[in-house]
Design a protein that fits this description.
Structural class: alpha+beta
Strand content: 15-25%
Shape: elongated
Helix content: 40-55%
Number of helices: 14
Radius of gyration: 24 Å
């Protein structure tokens, strides 16, 4: 049974799109209403939204801004949901691409906004609440992947550079978080709201080779976690053992990484072996935390996730981690033996 049959999902083109609308801040995940594209534009054009948006844009106090932002409604661009998570999707907007470009220099925001809104595929575009980003909905057709829902995020995120290029915004990177299936999109209208229902779809020819490789690597990671069998550590000794694992992570891995831009980066991935070899002392939750912490440190060597991805850093990292043999650690064994003696 495929995902469409299992969840009874409807697949909508952009004109028939349905969104979940929520009022009460990003933390609220229960829907208030299902709306269509016309209703979305009507909400964005409402004087109350314009007034609230203007107040938010003018507010400089972080605490007051947070309260104002919580009053803004948000919608889910990729579909409607019974609860805002990927598994609760009810309808999927297969012909919509949600675009979010953040951290744009002030002088360049109008440039990016004009590039996006002048695209014949642009359905909706507006400048973000802080005035430093542009949000948009783009009408798309997938030339080689008509219904990408099953692997929505991975397929789009591995092709993010291509998306930047075809949108004509190579100098400003897309926020990959906005490519997540259930990611919220705040409704904001302080200036320059643009919409167009007479669009021409942007034809996307996504590379599936990158996606397939990422999918294979992720499958290997899941297998690694499924097969994980930690050594027995008595509950009362876990805090001391965890502290020692943290010391190994800090002293034998983090402090041995060379952050000099001139230093070779890829060979340093091998240094994670020192942590991976002693992970059998950690339970699954701890193991996953160390795993994520180690890779986050590797990404910092490259400067960004995009550069790390381009160098296949994750694939190499996972290979080193999964091939590391379990080794006994003298300090941890001492903790365990003293615990047994007592």
């Amino acid at each position: 049974m495929n995902s469409k049959e299992k969840n009874n999902i409807t697949f909508n083109d952009f004109a028939d799109s349905k969104f979940t609308a929520v009022v009460g801040g990003q933390e609220k995940v229960n829907p208030d209403k299902q709306i269509n594209l016309i209703e979305l534009i009507a909400i964005l054009s409402n004087p109350a939204i314009r007034k609230l948006s203007a107040a938010l844009r003018a507010c400089k106090d972080p605490a007051a801004r947070a309260k104002l932002k919580a009053k803004l409604p948000y919608f889910t661009p990729y579909g409607s949901f019974s609860y805002r998570n990927n598994n609760s999707i009810l309808s999927y907007n297969k012909n919509i691409l949600a675009v979010d470009i953040d951290a744009i220099p002030d002088s360049e925001v109008p440039i990016v906004f004009n590039i996006i809104k002048n695209n014949k595929a642009c359905i909706l575009a507006y400048i973000s609440a802080k005035g430093k980003g542009v949000k948009a909905l783009i009408h798309v057709d997938y030339a080689n992947e008509p219904d990408p829902i099953a692997d929505h995020y991975n397929l789009l995120s591995t092709n993010s550079e291509y998306l930047n290029s075809i949108l004509g915004i190579t100098n400003w990177k897309l926020d990959k978080a906005q490519l997540k299936l259930s990611q919220p999109f705040f409704m904001f209208n302080a200036d320059g709201l643009y919409y167009n229902l007479n669009t021409e779809p942007l034809i996307l020819k996504l590379s599936k080779s990158l996606f397939k490789e990422r999918k294979a690597v992720m499958a290997k990671e899941k297998q690694l976690q499924a097969e994980y069998k930690p050594s027995y550590v008595p509950e009362e000794l876990k805090p001391a053992v965890t502290k020692e694992l943290q010391n190994i992570f800090t002293n034998d891995f983090l402090r041995k990484l060379n952050h000099d831009p001139k230093a070779a980066r890829h060979p340093q991935i091998y240094k994670v072996k020192a942590v991976a070899e002693v992970m059998h002392y950690a339970d699954l939750s701890e193991q996953q935390n160390f795993f994520k912490g180690c890779y986050a440190a590797i990404v910092l060597l490259y400067g960004s996730e995009e550069e790390a991805d381009a160098a296949n850093a994750y694939k190499s990292f996972l290979a080193v981690w999964s091939n590391a043999a379990c080794k006994k650690n003298e300090a941890i064994e001492s903790i365990l033996s003293k615990g047994v003696e007592k």
